[in-house]
């Protein structure tokens, strides 16, 4: 008996023609080839079948079975471009940049020693806003 491995490697770009999407097969022996270092070479096992005869005497038949086991190993990836997940990822990235700006401002304005200097540079304060608006309204004929 023996153990054979059938490896299927299937990498596929679904944006291209399906004729390019062909799996690659490889075969290899998985059991130990060295008989000297192996307790039972190949693929074999024993099992017993128990039964009672007409006199009520229990008996068994021990069977040693040899065979070939095939292990099929499949590896692969496939992908296709889609505009909707791409736009969602771009939008999420842009939103992250917006959140990062707000987070950095909070850290600078609350934890740094020169927070008053940064606040003056970040925001422009308009003094006497009511007077400024009133003078503009009064100057128009």
Automatic annotation (TrEMBL):
Reactions catalysed according to its record: Na(+)(in) = Na(+)(out); K(+)(in) = K(+)(out); Ca(2+)(in) = Ca(2+)(out)
Q: Which residues cross the membrane?
A: 94-112
Query: What InterPro entries does the annotation carry?
Result: P2X4_purnocptor (IPR003047), P2X_extracellular_dom_sf (IPR027309), P2X_purnocptor (IPR001429), P2X_receptor (IPR059116), P2X_RECEPTOR_CS (IPR053792)
Q: What is its main location?
A: membrane
Q: What is the top-level taxon of the source organism?
A: Eukaryota
Keywords from the UniProt entry: ATP-binding, Cell membrane, Disulfide bond, Glycoprotein, Ion channel, Ion transport, Ligand-gated ion channel, Lysosome, Membrane, Nucleotide-binding, Receptor, Transmembrane, Transmembrane helix, Transport
As for subcellular location, the record says:
Cell membrane; Lysosome membrane
Q: Which molecular function term from Gene Ontology is one that the record holds?
A: extracellularly ATP-gated monoatomic cation channel activity
One GO cellular-component annotation of the UniProt record comes to:
postsynapse
> What single Pfam family name could you report for this chain, choosing any that match?
P2X_receptor
GO biological process terms, alphabetically, are:
calcium ion transmembrane transport; response to ATP
What membrane topology is annotated for this entry?
Multi-pass membrane protein
PANTHER family in the record, alphabetically? Answer: P2X PURINOCEPTOR, P2X PURINOCEPTOR 4
Q: Which family does it belong to?
A: Belongs to the P2X receptor family.
What is the name attached to this protein's record?
ATP receptor
């Amino acid at each position: 008996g023996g153990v054979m491995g059938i490896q299927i490697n299937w990498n596929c770009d679904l944006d291209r023609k399906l004729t390019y999407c062909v799996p690659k097969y490889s075969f290899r022996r998985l059991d130990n080839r060295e008989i000297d270092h192996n307790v039972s070479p190949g693929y074999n096992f024993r099992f017993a079948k128990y039964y009672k005869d007409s006199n009520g005497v229990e008996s068994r038949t021990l069977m040693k079975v040899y065979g070939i086991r095939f292990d099929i190993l499949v590896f692969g990836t496939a992908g296709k471009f889609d505009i909707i997940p791409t736009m969602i990822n771009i939008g999420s990235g842009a939103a992250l940049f917006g959140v990062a700006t707000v987070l950095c401002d909070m850290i600078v304005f609350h934890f740094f020693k020169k927070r008053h200097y940064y606040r003056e540079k970040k925001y422009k304060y308009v003094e006497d806003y009511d007077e400024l608006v009133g003078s503009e309204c009064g100057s128009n004929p």
